[in-house]
Amino acid sequence: MSRAIEFVFRRKGGKGWHWTDIVTWVWLIVGLFVMFGPAVWLTASSFKSPAALAEFPPTILPYVTQKVTVEGYDKPLDLYTAALEDGSAATLAEVRRIGTVSQMVDPEKPTEIIKVNIAKRTPVRQMSFATENYTEPFTHFDFVRYLWNSVFVTVTATLITLVVNSMAAFALSKYEFRGRTFAMLLILATLMVPLSVIMVPLYSIVSALGLFNNLWGVILPTVATPTGVFILRQYMLTIPDELLDAARMDKASEWQIYWRIILPLTAPALAVLAIFSVVWRWNDFLWPLIVLSRKELYTLQVGLSIYSGELNVQWHFILAMTVVTMIPVVLVFLFLQRFITTGIAGTGLK
Amino acid sequence: MGHIKLTNVAKSFGAIDVLHDINLEIADGEFVVFVGPSGCGKSTLLRMIAGLEKPTGGELAIDGKVVNTVPAADRGLAMVFQSYALYPHMSVRQNLAFGLENTKMPKAEIATRITEAARMLEIEHYLDRRPGQLSGGQRQRVAIGRAIVRRPVAFLLDEPLSNLDAELRGSTRAELAALHARLSATMIYVTHDQIEAMTLADRIVVLRAGRIEQIGTPMELYNSPANRFVAGFIGSPHMNFLEGSVEPSSSGMAVATFAGGNRLELPVAASSLVKGAPITLGVRPQHVSIGSGADGIAAKIKLVEALGSETILHTDVAGQKILVVAQGQHNLTPGADIRLSLSSAPLHLFNEKGRRLEHAV
Predict the structure, then answer these.
(1) Which end of chain B, N or C, is more open, meaning fewer C-beta atoms within 10 Å of its C-beta?
(2) What are phi and psi of B76, to 5 degrees?
(3) Which of A242, A260, A264 sits opposite B81 (nearest CB)?
(4) What is this model's ipTM?
(5) Are residues B98 and A260, on separate chains, in Cβ contact within 8 Å?
(6) CATH 2.40.50.140 assigned to B240-350
(7) Which of A17-21, A152-156, B169-173 tops mean pLDDT?
(8) Nearest to B102 among A242, A243, A251 (CB)
């Protein structure tokens, strides 16, 4: 532990603060807030009640006004600290508010009404986690079904993506044929066509294939990605051709060369593509929204949009479910992150 | 088994011809070495025999069967690559088994073959390791093992020793020779190292710029090189060449003058040479001796390399460099004038086209 502290606080030249130390610290702390701030705020806010969410100025942590049961009143009353006319402060419960005047009672003496200007009272607050934001969607709303749809789409699309893209990359990196460079450029050029441009023709194709309102209609149009082909091809170029020659001398078929030699050796790049693909498919919103119109086929992201109605947005549920949908992506990252550095570094020119 | 015949084989990559008109017959059990400078096409020739490249002309036959269109896997050959090309994600055992599994051989048979090869190459202890955990020499053995388990009709070896350090190269060379003696299989070996070629080969094929310059046993190549290129390529340090021209002579023997007006009687009848024609004399550094007194050719020492058992002298004879390998140790310093004697040296004579002039040595 002391060594860790020593490591963190180590400074240039061993002693004194060099200006680069200060820049480093400021840079890293700002970076920490920029990267982690939204995630932390999202997670904290997902435990707020709808009232706390609507509050201004907003708080980071979930607070609620403390309530107290006062004799003679059916409902629990909100507690406030009020500044009285004689200059003293007292903890009072609010009965009702009329205009700028709040009628309050002392919980000890419930019969006596004290009038306080609303500017002179502040709520007594305590931290409270609204866990029902999480539990209610699971009971009232078909969360499990949406989760299953999302998992099915993500896993299937990722597996097909890996197989299809690695086959294309294998051909483009290890076979000499006329138009190889042209084919590669053509694939890369499709990177420049945004989804919104091809949405309508894609929709008619999916519709003509009878894949409308079918999870396969979400999966199939997304599996071939130029990014994936590019990452894998660049990686495969670094695998020596002599290995393929050796396999050919060893009576391996071209399929075996692909499956037993190339694929295992491309594992780092495949892991990177797997991460990308999982994140893409999991976060996909627009395309599933177009293809899926039956509620029981919704993926999580589409399902979440139910909570934002025309007149009323249920932010507390949206925030809570967003946290839940983040979890798988974070887990995938945790498991595959060690491949990212080797994989991304390996896609460079070599 | 293992009889390979090439007839007028040619290869071009697009417009570039890399091999021309290769005619070669390799007998069963023979150890043939392809040697030549880099880019001469020796590796391409080997890859063509292996089936990894298709010849663009001519005919390639193994055991009397034309195999031009037979894929690499079905030619019954095994190859050892320069980089070894071991599958990095498989254990040594899996590396050895991969080729056999692809032929759908029974598991028990595969196991016995691997055990046998592992024992022969002394790699039993690391059968379960990955290639990355082995040293260069061990990887080399595994690569050879992968060829042995296939029991091929011929082994093709593409510069298999070039990635080893000098000491290991020497011992592995001896092991390869022993292996060839034990397996008595045809082996074709590509190298640019003439020591490997000289020590291992039954016959050497010298290639240059896609053509065969000479085929012969190592001693044939050393003693009677067919042309100037082979003469310069085989032997270390390389042969000295002296440019000269044929002179009129009074005796029956031809005489040549070369650098600095030195005259030398040639061991060839004067009648067989055209007077005034340019001629190249080749003499191996080992055959030049240091003369005494005023006899011989005047030379100036440029550099002395004393190796203990022998001394290599870099000398200058009227602008032409001549290397001399003198046995033993000599007390000579750079800048000194000495006399060189060629009187006892076997001379190699080449005409202006670089072809050997036959004569009695």
Answers:
(1) C
(2) 70, 25
(3) A242
(4) 0.82
(5) yes
(6) yes
(7) A152-156
(8) A251
